[in-house]
Every structure is written in C-alpha cells, then in structure tokens.
Design a protein that fits this description.
The protein has 466 residues and is α/β, with parallel strands linked by helices. It folds into 2 domains: 6-229, Alpha-Beta Complex (Amidase signature (AS) enzymes); 258-458, Alpha-Beta Complex (Amidase signature (AS) enzymes). The chain has helices at 11-20, 25-43, 51-67, 109-116, 159-167, 183-188, 219-229, 273-288, 302-321, 325-330, 333-340, 347-368, 406-411, 440-453, 462-465; strands spanning 46-49, 78-82, 120-125, 137-138, 142-143, 172-177, 192-195, 211-216, 258-261, 292-295, 373-377, 415-422, 428-434. A hairpin with a 5-residue loop joins strand 12 and strand 13 (428-434). Helix 9 packs across helix 11 (333-340) and helix 9 crosses helix 12. It starts with 10 loop residues before the first helix and ends with a helix.
Length: 466
C-alpha cells in the first residue's frame, strides 16, 4: 500500500518529481500545511509554525526548479528542526515556560546548511524543559504525543522531531541528543534515528556528549539529510576533521564484519523480554548474512551512569538557581525536583561526577574497539504513557533507560536506532547499531541493509499513518 499524499513521499522521490515537473514544492507545502493543521491539535509536535512563511519559501523553491537554478539536490524538500537549533530572530525557550526566552541572533550551522540547500523549514519542533526528559512533557508546550498512538510518549528530548517524522510532516527532521534524545524517540516511534560521530554535524553550542542528527522514516532519508548537514563549520570549536563521507544509499551487508551483541548494559532498567527477543532476532539476521556475532558483557558500572546523571543534575541546578522565584515556578515541577537534588553535592563530588563522562567514554571505547559494529537495544523498555515525564517517574532515581544510549554520546561514536520489532500492542522496538568514530556513512549503509532484511513485521507501515 502506498500513500497518495505528496508530503509522505521520501526526499529522493520528491526531488525526482520536482525535476520532472510532475509536482512542485508549493503543492507539497500545501499538503504539509493541511497535514499539520489536521494533526497538531492532538499531537502538539510544533512550537513555531508560520504557514505563510512556508508558502513563501516553497514558492521560491518552485521558481528555482522552473528556472533550473535549484540550490541542491533536495531543494524544496520539507524539514523541521528542534526548537533548540537556532533560527535567526526566533525564540529558543528550550521547552520551558520561563518568560522572555532568548532570541537567536543568528542561525545554527544546521539551519544554515538546510537553507543553503533550498530545504523548506516547516517549523521548529517541541522539546521538554531544558531537554532533560525522555518524553514530550513540557511546562511550555504541554504534552507532545506519539505520531503512532496518541496514548504513548513521543520520546524525548527530540519529542516534536520524532512525532513530526512519524506523523508525516515531510521527510527531514533534525533533533539533538546528549544521552539518547534522538534515538529514544526513534525507538518509540519506529523511526531511523542517528546520533552521529561527535562534531560531524557542527553545533553553535557544543559540549561533551551533545550531537545533532536526523530522525526519519527510513535510513535512506537519514543518509540524504546527512549529506546536507554533516559539513564543517568553524562555530563548533569542539569538532574534529573527518574524512570526506560517502553518503551512498547502496545497502552494505555486514558479511565478514565482527559484530558484538550486548543485551545487558550492567546498569539501569532490566531489558523487557519483548525487546530482548527483537534484538536477538536482529542479531540472527546479521549472523545469517555472514557476520561473526559474539556476546559483549556489560562495560559501564552503575556508579558511572549514576555519576553522569548527578553531574547533569548539578549543571541544570546551576541554571535553575540563577532564576527568580517567579521564573523557578514556571519550570516543570519534575525538572525542578530532579535538578534540585544536585544542590547538595560538594564541589569535589561535582568534579568526580563530571569525570564520569570521561570514564564512560574510556570504558566504551575500550569495550567496543575490537568490533566493527555493536548491536543492542536502544532502550530496555517500550513506550510509556504520554503524560509521564520518564519511564521512571521518581525524579530522585537515576535515568535507568539510557544505559545503552549514553555511552556512545560520551565516547563520541555514532549510533543509530532502527526499527526491529512491533509488539502485539503496537509499541515499536528499536535496534541500536553503533560503530567506530568517523564511520557514519558505512554505519548508515548497514542500517539501510538491515531495513531491507528485518521483515515486514518489524517495521511500521507508514502508508497507514500517512
């Protein structure tokens, strides 16, 4: 079954039809606008949405295609960006209802790359307060819900990005990730979602573990989006020089590769049986293709994960403490309680907690170095209720659902979530595939191969969503 909605088409098909004159970016924009106006009252994925600006940008792209002067291969393809990805002149509230949010003085590198390529930015997508929740619960936005099932969480903190992708607001969506914020919405909404190598997509506000990356309905569209936004920018002072990537959409079989299978993170929540079974079935596909699949024991102790989370508490409390009482009252109570637990750490303990990010990086690199790929769950649990801020609803508990994702943020290695199963209740399960730093293009070709081999019962039928 295929959708008759133009905006549900993938980026390559849209571009081909633009080139043929079979459809225009303006027509696609009208389809996107209608889709958003139909679904937003229930989903709440967009923070900033200006239909007239979308129409104007799409009209400019339509004229470029007519004149043969398109700015790039995907000129006119619709995209969204997370609200913390700066767009010049627009507010960046980071999900909080604190009055008078900062106004971006200039575009983030990602925004610039999209506009330079002629991509039509449909809007900015929602996130929870300060990006420190794995859901779409926000003091500013209310609740962002899954594009697959309104009762379920969108995942977070790239909440609106995941929902926009799942709901069919165009092919390209960009989120950010410091402990799983791209891959968690990916896993819980059946998407392909990449946390790339550290600094491969440059940031204007870089810090340890932070990355930007694509959330899309397919690996092929993630690859196409990477070809646009994975380009150097001097504003990211933490980035490194990478070899030129080959963003090919030719699947790459894992035949001959050495592949680790990790089913126990050694910390956090216990992996649910359905998730474990889906990841084991995926690993069997790799073995059948000629990969050598071997088990990988846990490599991040509980104390390391707890220390990292406690450092995040202290860092957020530093922001919270600087607010006026009225502003503090505007922050989501769960986040206020969560970060206030960081107020009691001594300076020495805060330094020790900060050092856990380095220790996590060291442990992750050492454990995974012998392998071409590492397979694991994205998260131990399937999607939870949309109203819950976390799978664990006690703010004083650690983030036990990021034990598989956070290590690759700290190590800087690329890791992608690919749909690997659908439970009887419709909740999706993501397979995480990680690889060595700077191998993102090969990793995504393997993800594309897995999508073709996983079976129809392991993927979302997007035509039924569109």
């Amino acid at each position: 079954m295929t959708s008759n909605r133009s905006a549900a088409l993938d980026a390559a098909t849209l571009a081909a039809r633009y080139a043929e004159g079979a459809i225009t970016p303006s027509e696609v924009a009208e389809d996107i606008i209608a889709r958003i106006e139909s679904r937003e009252p229930e989903l709440n994925a967009l923070y900033l949405f200006d239909p007239e600006q979308v129409r104007a940008d799409a009209a400019a792209s339509t004229e470029r295609w007519r004149a043969g002067a398109q700015l790039g291969a995907f000129d006119g393809v619709p995209a969204t960006v997370k609200e913390n990805i700066a767009r010049a002149g627009l507010p960046k509230p980071s999900g909080t209802a604190i009055p008078n949010p900062p106004i971006a003085a200039q575009n983030a590198p990602t925004t610039d790359r999209l506009l330079e390529a002629g991509v039509v930015i449909v809007g900015s997508t929602t996130m929870p307060d300060w990006g420190m929740l794995s859901s779409g619960v926000s003091s500013l936005h209310g609740i962002t819900r899954s594009g697959l099932n309104q009762a379920h969480t969108s995942g977070g903190s790239s909440a609106g990005a995941g929902t926009a992708a799942a709901a069919g607001y165009g092919p390209f969506h960009v989120g950010t990730d410091i402990g799983g914020s791209i891959r968690l919405p990916g896993s819980w909404q059946g998407l392909t979602a990449l946390k790339p190598s550290e600094g491969l997509i440059p940031l204007d506000a870089p810090y340890t573990g932070r990355a930007a990356g694509p959330l899309t309905r397919s690996a092929a569209d993630a690859i196409r989006l990477m070809s646009i936004i994975a380009r150097p920018d001097p504003r990211d002072y933490l980035t490194r020089a990478y070899r030129e990537m080959e963003w090919s959409t030719e699947p790459l079989s894992p035949s001959g590769m050495r592949v680790a299978l990790q089913l126990d993170a050694g910390s956090g929540l216990t992996v649910e049986p359905g998730t474990r079974a889906a990841v084991e079935r995926a690993a069997a596909r790799f073995a059948e293709a000629g990969a050598t699949v071997v088990p990988l024991e846990p490599f991040v102790p509980v104390a390391v994960l707890d220390g990292l989370v406690d450092f995040w508490r202290s860092r957020s409390f530093a922001d919270f403490e600087a607010l006026s009482p009225e502003e503090q009252a505007a922050v989501l109570p769960f986040i206020a309680d969560w970060c206030s637990a960081g107020a009691g750490f001594s300076a020495a303990q805060t330094v020790r907690n900060r050092n856990m990010s380095d220790e996590m990086a060291r442990l992750t690199r050492a454990a995974t170095e012998p392998f071409d790929l590492v397979l694991s769950p994205v998260t131990p649990v399937a999607a939870f209720a949309a109203e819950d801020p976390m799978p664990i609803t006690d703010p004083l508990e650690t983030m036990g659902h990021i034990s598989f994702t956070a290590p690759y943020n700290m190590s800087g290695q690329p890791a992608v979530s690919v749909g690997a199963g659908i439970q009887d209740d419709g909740r999706t399960i993501g397979l995480q595939i990680a690889s060595r730093i700077g191998t993102d293009d090969r990793l995504m070709r393997v993800a594309l191969w897995f999508e073709s081999m996983r079976g129809t019962d392991a993927r979302v039928d997007w035509s039924r969503i569109a």
